[in-house]
């Protein structure tokens, strides 16, 4: 995922004649099948979010996204992303530096371990923190004695979100930095630059679009995570409800229009994410892979 | 993860910062991922063998695995077929709005799963945009296992398309031309030349979509109806057990899911090596 897609090869009548492309009716049929499939599975739900959100009029929409519980959910979602995004970005850069610029034993195992959170079910990701910090958990009695709340509180939500979004920046940067090699950095160092100067002036400009790309995806997932957060949050309204959890509560209370109103904010975030991603891909494609 | 460009010369690197970046990486990885995951196995170890077996292999648990794995398999198969068509059309054909459609393919990565869940449910429910046409004809999707498959098709589609696209782009046209020159029909060329070249990427995309589907929760819980033995997925059973304070039971089922996802992760890594060793040409 997250591969930059390059410009495709256009079809010409000439290609059809040479037998390396399909005849026009086949092309139309395949295009129609692909577009119909995407329209049904992707476009229709996206349109439905906004349509359902506005079903009871703008007044209901506005009320739903400005009531105190919704606002506190927005605040919590932004807070959680504001913590886990910088944390995982810093980690991703450090991990990519060690893995892409150096050779050491156990490197491929480390890369596999970094990918691990993507393979774990969101529910299991939440569960492990409950087992560690929950009331019946391994550290539960100690935490209770010292009056520290992690599960059913904000720290648990931050932990679960950070776990889920852990690999995004690292897995974007590792292939990019491996491809770039070490020659430029070595040249800078031999010219007398310090290690930090080399990183800031040579490496960082080379990988900034890669970082941005990872951050865009990481942020979308951090703000939208449901399963893991749902397990650790305890669903306390106005306190530990993130936006996706607030959507769930409203939906289960049969407040459809309100649920879709809050959901539409998340859908807007998704659209902004897709736009940013395409713009970055275009940029990376134009500048020759951000080299 | 590519290992392209890893030069042997790097062994004696003059670059600084190896110790500290590796230290930070390993520490952060251990604290946030490895130690919490170890807690899962630690908790399981407190169960007796009989207790573990009762939690893992009870009829309700078995039904939930059947649904989770079965629906994920069906959805991955649907995505393999339609994902191939979508990737093919996006790479090979020109049509207005292609860039927009290409960007839209990533929607399931960007849209929060809970939003996808409530939206698919409302569209397919009795009064929904599609449900009101389908249900009179006896096609019930919402609150049935079919609904689970639909949600997982949504979630898994980009994995197949995004795995296939780069391989399709790098495919050498000369091979197809040669096949055509030798008298192969377009369909024969596709079956004998293109499909074998695309197979590793197709299988990898299928496996990624399947792995994601097995653990998926947010998009499924709304549409599935959550009836024990019928439409209850394994991740939901974990949540249910947690809500009943049955930590041991939840943990046991989580171990089953986790072991399955480890196995899939290793298989996918092996597959990705295969698709690179056997380049598409």
What does this structure look like?
The complex is a heterodimer of chains A (291) and B (281). Chain A contains 14 helices and no strands. With 291 residues, chain A is an all-alpha fold. The two termini of chain A are 20 Å apart. Chain B contains 13 helices and no strands. The two termini of chain B are 21 Å apart. Mean pLDDT of chain B is 89; it is low at 1-11. The chains are: A mainly alpha (291), B mainly alpha (281). Chains A and B meet through α2, α4, α5, α6 and α8 of A and α1, α3, α4, α5 and α6 of B.
Short description:
The complex is a heterodimer of chains A (291) and B (281). Chain A has 291 residues and is mainly α.
How would you describe this structure in keywords?
heterodimer, A: mainly alpha, 76% helix, disordered N terminus, B: mainly alpha, globular
Largest sheet of chain A: none
Morphology of chain B: globular
How much β-strand is present in the residues of chain A? Answer: under 5%
DSSP strand content of chain B: under 5%
Distance between the termini of chain A: 20 Å
Tell how many strands the DSSP assignment of chain B holds. Answer: 0
Amount of helix of chain A: over 70%
Oligomer: heterodimer
Query: Given the C-alpha coordinates, what overall shape of chain A results?
Result: globular
Main sheet attributes: strand count, strand direction, barrel closure of chain B? none
Uncertain stretches of chain A: 1-9, 286-291
Largest interface: chains, residues each: A-B, 116 and 113 residues
Number of helices of chain B: 13
Structure class of chain A: mainly alpha
Structural class of chain B: mainly alpha
How many strand units of chain A?
Answer: 0
The whole-angstrom Rg of chain A is 23 Å
